[in-house]
Amino acid sequence: MAEKHRTIPLAKRGFDFETVMWTFTRVSALAMYILVLISLVGALVMGARTQMNLADLMRWVFTPNVSHVTNTNVPDIEPWMTVFWKVTACIMLFFATSHGLHGLLSVLEDYLAILWLRRTLRVLVLLLVLFMIYVGIYVVWTS
Amino acid sequence: MGLKRNVGLMTGLRYQGKGPMLTFVLHRVSGLGIVLFVSVHILSSYFGGDLGIFLNTVYEHWAFQLVIFFCALFHAINGLRIVVLDLWPKLIEHQREAIWVEWAVFLPVYAIAVIVILSTALGG
Question: What long-range pairs does A114-120 form, CB within 8 A, spacing at least 24?
Fold first, then answer.
């Protein structure tokens, strides 16, 4: 049974929205793990070990935005607000928003049978993702 | 998937999915919790104002932090198990063992977070 599945050619497996998003959910999860590790190593290099407590460090690694360290004992916030960290925060924002809101969509679709409602919901979630990414990028670059 | 189900609601509720079912339910609940928290957090820092300040005091409460840390850590660790099992499908045979490993990783990590949160909140 298991052998049979592996011999199905790629074209017959079905390449639709749900397959793409299934893959994207896994890939974006790994990408967020990598971004968290980059932020963690970066914070420790910049002196987080003696200047921050665990909660501040976790807040920073989830999204490396400078507003997450302004209340800590960091003496100089300049290295925490470089273009590198703002771009990293924006990539994290992109993956977190699309991964999370697609998760919301797939939970809702499990309980919705009406076809036009599901199609409308997909468009609404896509618009919501774009709106949240816009809002997030604005917050990251102005904070 | 439709509204016409083969099993009734009471039968569905009595479904004994055990460990895998528990992680499935917790993954959904924690995921929705994170979506709600992150969305409100981004929107409140965009709009600011009195509501934003009020929401910040809610986030900083230790009870809220216990909940959101559970959501984030469980979703991350369970998500890593799902990714590993899905990208190497042969490992799905060992799903139950993988879930035990997952709890063995999650419980100490969450325990550290709980101790830090509570000692900061109650110890000053």
Answer: none
Nearest Cα residue to A93 out of A17, A32, A51:
A32
Map residue A5 onto helix, strand or coil: helix
- Model confidence, pTM: 0.84
Q: In this complex, which of B32, B39, B45 lies closest to A107 when CB atoms are compared?
A: B32
Q: Which H/E stretch holds residue A134? A: helix A115-142
Interface of A with B in 24-43 (CB under 8 A): 26, 29-30, 33
Q: Which residues contact B31 (CB under 8 A, 6 or more apart)?
A: A100, A103, A104, A107, B71, B75
The answer to whether A97 and A131 have CB atoms below 8 angstroms apart is: no
Cα–Cα distance measured from residue A96 to residue A32, given in angstroms and rounded to the nearest whole number:
8
pLDDT one-digit tens code per residue, B50-93: 888 888 888 888 899 899 999 999 999 999 999 999 888 888 88
Question: What ipTM was reported for this prediction?
Answer: 0.82
Contact B83 A30 (CB under 8 A): yes
Instruction: Check if the beta carbon of residue A74 is closer than 8 Å to that of residue A52.
Output: yes
Choose the closest CB to B42 out of A104, A109, A135: A135
